[in-house]
Amino acid sequence: MIARHSYEQTENGEGVETIINAPCEDPVHGKGQFTEKRIHLSNRLPYWVQAIIPKLFYIIEKSWNYYPFTITEYTCSFIPKLSVTIHTKFEDNPGTTENCLGLTGEKLVERIVDFVDVAYDEVSPKHYKEEEDLKFFQSKKTMRGPLPENWKNTTSPIMCSYKVVEASFEVWGIQSKAEEYIQKTIREILLLGHRQAFAWIDDWISMTIADVRTYECEMQRKTNTKVNACVTDAEAGENPKTLDGEGGGGGLKSPKSFSPLTNLFSPSSSSSSPGQNNTSWFSW
């Protein structure tokens, strides 16, 4: 459903381009899937951000999915002081685990808990679709839904996606504004994406893992075509070496904006584990 969401959000050369989608393995978390993507979004950024970035701008996303645990990193070669890291863990409960991702010390003290309700939090009007409104939606295959007001305490089965979102943008003068914008943007994406994950249940509930991989490949091929059809024209005359560098980054430095997100429905040219190469900002 991430692949389908990415396809729907891609148009006019802006959206999500998949570079790598391959198996990976970690000594702690076991076997998983690594993806690397480029998120092209120059024209979707507020004007105060567009004023300080090149016209051809993309964010690098690297994600390691060891279900039920995932790690996602975002960086940008043009803005080396930008870094976002999202740690996720899925549990079969309505968001009742107090410290699901095991935060300790200073991080636990400074965290802000934000409960994201996929049924009753409002999405942006431009993204609203009645058929994806979980207050009214009912699955034909499972008969799950619609979700009543107290759905978190009455619905079964139920899953919570626990997330810790750390955003750092250490640029004097706009740091706080930029980090607040990043957190707000990620929340909106997670709300819309997880609403769709449930509303599209009849499309994926019968899939095997082989079906998933086949579907991902086809959707990613179509999405890459939509992105590259416009990006290629825009890049004419540019030096590609200035576009592909992954420099900068280098991990988080005392993140100023820190927020675990809870109550959400629902992997560079190398698939090395995160931390070995912190050069990567939207898988859930």
Could you characterize what this model shows?
29% of the residues lie in helices and 24% in strands. It contains eight helices and eight strands. Strands 1-2-3-4-5-7-8-6 form an eight-stranded mixed beta sheet. Strand 1 (15-26) and strand 2 form a beta hairpin. Helix 1 (2-8) runs parallel beside helix 7 (209-235). The longest helix is centred in the C-terminal third of the chain and has 27 residues, at 209-235. The radius of gyration is 19 Å and the shape is globular. 35% of the residues are buried. Mean pLDDT is 80; it is low at 236-256, 262-272 and 275-284.
How are helices and strands ordered from N to C? Answer: HEEHEEEHEHEHHHHE
Q: End-to-end span in angstroms?
A: 11 Å
Please mark out the parts with pLDDT under 50 across 5 or more consecutive residues, or reply none.
236-256, 262-272, 275-284
* Biggest beta-sheet profile: 8 strands, mixed
Enumerate how many helices there are, as a single number. 8
Total strands: 8
Integer average pLDDT? 80
**Fraction in beta strands:** 15-25%
Across the major sheet, the strand order is 1-2-3-4-5-7-8-6
Structural class: alpha+beta
Report the principal-axis shape: globular
GO cellular component, one term: cell periphery
Protein name: Phosphatidylinositol transfer protein N-terminal domain-containing protein
Biased composition (Low complexity): 257-284
Pfam families: IP_trans
